[in-house]
Design a protein that fits this description.
This protein is of the alpha+beta class. The protein contains twelve helices and 48 strands. Strand 17, helix 2 (274-283) and strand 18 form a beta-alpha-beta unit. This is Maltase.
């Protein structure tokens, strides 16, 4: 529907400071456009733009886009490469699930979901009116009463956002709460009456997002210091639907190699890594990948190895030995390149004129680990090949398997130019000032740090003339993109790229870790909403540093943290220089806990891998999942962020406080729950107190799920040879569904098999059906056993294709175990019992 003229007379009673009038509506192939004419303005942060253009794009059935631009002055817009879905808009009246209403004066826009008339975006907000000035853009939306919103990353906060101002400006901070951090993701998801919708503000400039209550109405106000107003509205449905529609636009999550899902070990300060790997082997703790922090480098120069501590020949022999048994190696690579003549990376980049420029057109010089440094300009058309060439020099010395990229906000040890921080260039708000814009976003812990604090000077320029002022938040995203492509070209395999900085769509390029946390129970607790938060922002491959990065971890903290971190999608132990060693074998109790929970993780990796496949192809988008994603109708679940689920199968209820041996978990009443360890059905509903001694983490399976598992091994290459087992957990209706995705674990373009499982059971019998899709799985892995949970009576016979199968029935816990021989996991079958 193109638009409906709505007159709201009460608006005239309290006039907004800035007012536009809508005129001259024109039908377009993509939707419609209109002119907006300024009637009154405040000129507070610059002159109000007199004439604006509104464009409304009917993009897909579930996605609407609208933009507000200056039709006469070119302004920065986020490059099109950040949008994955470039299909032509379908235009209006093609079955879209939204309608657009407006008021002509004062102009406001209202977008509703057609299927239930739920308001998704409504700019009729008196306390944050539409404003369009040179360095200040503003628009607001009403959220209704008692709103529940999630997203607006990246901040350490509860998953359900409290009223606050959320600043988006990438910078290097050691994860303080309620402060802008490493990534900028101006996307939020709102839950209303059990249904979700999403809103994405496609803008890379610094911004504040004010979440507040005004006149009994919850509102969001977006205040950006540049760019244009460019919004995408997703009609959603379930929370997974809303996130899925978002990732369709910005890019489906990248499919990691299988080995990336194993356990990883790193620290800043290793004198040797050979001993670490040996000790993990002796302790019988799974270890897939060893990492090295910046101290492996020669004077912190990228692409080099310290000739005394990590001589290349010795490191190559070590990595070859890892590869021989199926393990992997990951080094860190920082963003700053030492401007030292004779250093190959600097000389080759200088020859191509690849460095970010200062406001005078000279190479910008900042300071990071190697000292005075220059910074690659990812907008330069030759930067990708230069980056790949440098990495190949390093890879030819030591054949590493993936990349950990850090300091890419860009972090700078100086405020802009070292020794000469920027100064205001004008007193008038009408003069563009990149470092001191008229509106100051709430940057940093003090909420008043200038834009250039610990990053580059905002007057810096990139290839094509783009300003750092506009592109700053894109740097980590672009480096991840270039790094993934380079590693795929060098190795011919899928790449593991873990970055610190990110922007919307980052998940389509690589993964994240949550940054420099601390070894405290509070940091352990807040790691869960952080991981869930980044999952709903389209980055499922994410985890926090297990046991904490800064400060000394205690034995109890590390034991409790691995009980959580074993279930992060990305699982890595990492700590800092000068802290006590915290490898999992350092304490006997932690060693025993780690063996248990990491073997559970490795058993469940077929589930994790399948969920990543779902995210890649758009079946769903998250791997670690908040309870409300699974139970969107449950109001209490909206506030639960100290438990989390893996897909719709496994619920983790960890202990997050010191000297605690019981934990309260919430179990939505609609669910049928089973103890993961015993398979016993648990009569849980609502808040339940669970025993949790130091060596135990409560785990539960949700009825209705079929969970693929595989016998574990301390190295995944060997584990992939083991037989599979399906855990079929029946719901209250006696049914369950699940799936399994299989491929070779690393090929960029791989043969694959996708298997769907369905089970239906009653008191008189039941059946499990396996339906294989796509190509044959190249390996002949076997399905050895199926455990069906919640079978009320023992069957007399179990058969497949009229052939009787061996089975047992545990009457105590109502579990039917079916034993298979010579059954390929990637095969079609129907098993029945009666």
């Amino acid at each position: 529907m193109r638009g409906v003229l709505l007159w709201l007379p009460f608006l005239c009673l309290v006039a907004a400071t800035t007012e536009y009038k809508l005129e001259s509506i024109v039908n377009e192939e993509y939707g419609w456009s209109a002119a907006l004419r300024l009637i009154s303005g405040d000129n507070k942060y610059g002159k109000d733009t007199k004439d604006l253009r509104l464009d409304v794009y009917f993009q897909t059935r579930e996605r609407l886009r609208f933009t507000i631009t200056d039709p006469y002055t070119a302004r920065w817009q986020v490059p099109s490469f950040t949008i994955a879905d470039q299909t032509k808009p379908m235009g209006p009246n093609r079955g879209e699930d939204y309608q657009v209403n407006y008021t002509t004066y004062p102009f406001s826009l209202q977008i509703t979901r057609r299927s239930d008339l739920r308001v998704l975006f409504d700019s009729n907000v008196l306390f944050g009116p539409l404003t369009f000035q040179n360095q200040f853009l503003q628009i607001s939306t009403r959220l209704g009463n008692d709103s529940s919103i999630f997203g607006l990353g990246e901040h350490v906060t509860n998953l359900k956002l409290p009223y606050n101002t959320y600043t988006l400006w990438n910078r290097d901070l050691p994860t303080p709460e309620n402060t802008n951090l490493y990534g900028s993701h101006p996307f939020y998801l709102q839950m209303v009456d059990g249904k979700a919708h999403g809103v994405f503000f496609h803008n890379s400039n610094g911004m504040d997002v004010l979440y507040r209550q005004e006149s009994s109405q919850d509102t969001l106000t977006f205040r950006a210091i540049g760019g244009i107003l460019d919004f995408y509205i997703f009609t959603g449905g379930t929370p997974e639907d809303a996130v899925n529609q978002y990732t369709q636009l910005v890019g489906r999550p990248y499919m990691p190699p299988y080995w990336a899902l194993g356990f990883h070990q790193c620290r800043y300060g290793y004198r040797t890594v050979e001993t670490v790997v040996e000790n993990y082997t002796i302790a019988d703790i799974p270890l897939e990948t060893i990492w090295t922090d910046i101290d492996y480098m020669d004077n912190y120069f990228d692409f080099t190895y310290d000739p005394e501590r990590f001589p290349p020949a010795q490191m190559k022999a070590f990595v070859d030995s890892l590869h021989a048994v199926g393990r992997h190696y990951m080094p860190i690579v920082d963003v700053g390149i030492s401007n030292t003549t004779g250093y190959f990376a600097y000389d080759s980049g200088s020859a191509l004129d690849l460095w970010t420029k200062d406001g005078e057109g000279n190479d910008f010089i900042g300071k990071v680990w190697p000292g005075l440094s220059v910074f690659p300009d990812w907008f330069h058309p030759k930067s990708a090949q230069w980056w790949e060439d440098c990495l190949k020099v390093q890879h030819d010395q030591v054949p590493f398997d993936g990349m950990w990229i850090d300091m890419n906000e860009i972090s700078n040890f100086c405020d802009g130019v070292c020794g000469n921080p920027p100064k205001p260039i004008a007193n008038s708000v009408d003069e563009f000032d990149p470092n001191f814009p008229p509106y100051a976003i709430q940057n940093g812990e003090n909420k008043n740090d200038p834009l250039y604090h610990s990053v580059l000077d905002m007057s810096c320029r990139h290839y094509g003339g783009e300003r750092e002022y506009d592109t700053h938040n894109l740097h980590g995203y672009m480096q991840t993109w270039r790094s993934r492509d380079a590693m795929e070209n060098i190795r011919g395999q899928r790449a593991l790229i873990i970055s610190r900085s990110s922007y919307s769509g980052h998940g389509s390029r690589g993964g994240r870790w949550t940054g420099d946390n601390r070894s405290t129970f509070r940091d352990l607790e807040m790691s869960i909403p952080d991981v869930l938060h980044l999952n709903l922002l389209g980055i499922p491959l994410v985890g926090a540093d297990i046991c904490g990065f800064q400060e000394d971890a205690t034995e109890q903290l590390c034991g409790r943290w691995i009980q959580v971190g074993a279930f992060y999608p990305f699982s890595r132990n990492h700590n800092s220089l000068g802290q006590k060693s915290q490898e999992l074998y350092r304490w006997e109790s932690v060693t025993n806990i780690s063996r248990t929970v990491l073997n559970i993780r490795y058993r469940l990796l077929p589930l994790y891998y399948t969920l990543f496949h779902h995210a890649r192809v758009g079946i769903s988008s998250t791997v670690a999942r908040a309870l409300f994603f699974v139970f969107p109708q449950d109001i209490q679940a909206l506030s639960i962020d100290q438990q989390f689920m893996i897909g719709n199968s496994l619920l983790i209820t960890p202990v997050l406080t010191e000297d605690t041996y019981q934990v309260t978990g919430y179990f939505p009443p609609m669910g049928r729950w089973y103890d993961f360890y015993t398979y016993e059905e648990m009569p849980y509903s609502g808040n339940v107190q669970l025993d949790a001694p130091l060596d135990f983490v409560p785990l539960h399976l949700l009825g209705g799920s079929i969970t693929p598992t595989q016998a574990p091994n301390n190295i995944l290459r060997e584990a992939r040879k083991n037989p599979f087992l399906l855990i079929v957990a029946l719901n209250h209706q006696g049914s369950s569904t699940g799936s399994l995705y299989l491929d070779d674990g690393g090929s960029i373009d791989t043969n694959s098999t996708y298997i769907q499982y369905r089970c239906q059971s009653s008191r008189t019998g039941g059946s499990i059906r396996s339906t294989r899709e796509k190509k044959d799985y190249p390996e002949k892995a076997l399905l050895g056993q199926i455990d069906v949970l919640g079978v009320s009576t023992s069957p007399s016979v179990v058969q497949s294709n009229n052939q009787k199968l061996s089975f047992t029935y545990n009457e105590t816990v109502s579990v039917l175990s079916i034993y298979l021989t010579n059954t390929l996991v990637a095969s079609d079958f129907t098993i029945k019992w009666k």
